Amino acid sequence: MDSHISKYAERNKPIRRFERFILKIMIFIIIPIFCILAIFYPTRKISNSLSILFSLAGLIQLEVTGLFEYVDYFSKELEKIYDESGLTPSNITRAIHEYYNPEPTLKAFIDNQLYFNKRFGFYLLLIGGVIQLFITWLA
């Protein structure tokens, strides 16, 4: 089970190295600078930015640790159980599968990204946090 979750062989992909680099920069450089600024120059912008930076660092840390891959692994295990047992899925599962359309249309692609791609939500949160940071400093 751990081999499926950690994906140790993929740790040196460029995007994985970039995620770890950004996490280290945020934890060891950016957040401490903002903590010092919040102590010596307490303004609303700095305190708002500090909370947003902690949220962004938390999201990146969850991605780096593989939480989303872990959730994806267990959802695949659940599909295997349904396939092997032949049990009828629940009403919730049927409702989810109503949205899935394997035809390669633009609408099907958008629906699949919005409803089934687990990383899409992570990237939405990440972009939202970055936008909040910029809005805080521009206001």
Comma- or semicolon-separated keywords:
139 residues, mainly alpha, 81% helix, elongated
Could you explain the architecture of this structure?
With 139 residues, the chain is mainly α. The protein has one domain. Helix content is 81%, strand content 0%. The protein has seven helices and no strands. Helix 2 packs antiparallel against helix 3. The chain starts with a helix and ends with a helix. The mean pLDDT is 75.
Poorly predicted sequence stretches spanning 5 or more consecutive residues: none
The number of strands is: 0
Percent of sequence in beta strands: under 5%
Mean pLDDT: 75
Number of helices: 7
Summarize the structure in short:
By secondary structure, the protein is mostly helical. It contains seven helices and no strands.
Layout: helices, strands, pairs:
Elements: H1 2-6, H2 14-40, H3 44-65, H4 67-85, H5 91-99, H6 106-115, H7 118-138
